[in-house]
Amino acid sequence: VYTPWCINCDVTSKQVEKLAKYFKGQPDLIFARIDASTNEHPKLQ
Predict the structure, then answer these.
(1) Which of 15, 20, 40, 44 is the most buried (most CB within 10 A)?
(2) pTM (2 decimals)?
(3) pLDDT tens, residue order, the chain (45 aa)
């Protein structure tokens, strides 16, 4: 979970991207990024 405006999230996101590239092709490992600053659920807007 990250937000685009968070400096710490940006740094961490770059490190996770490197890990994702390193482990690319591993069938049991999934890297995902969720933008916590957006949510389309009507009750959360």
Answers:
(1) 20
(2) 0.65
(3) 888 889 999 899 999 999 999 999 999 999 998 888 887 777 765
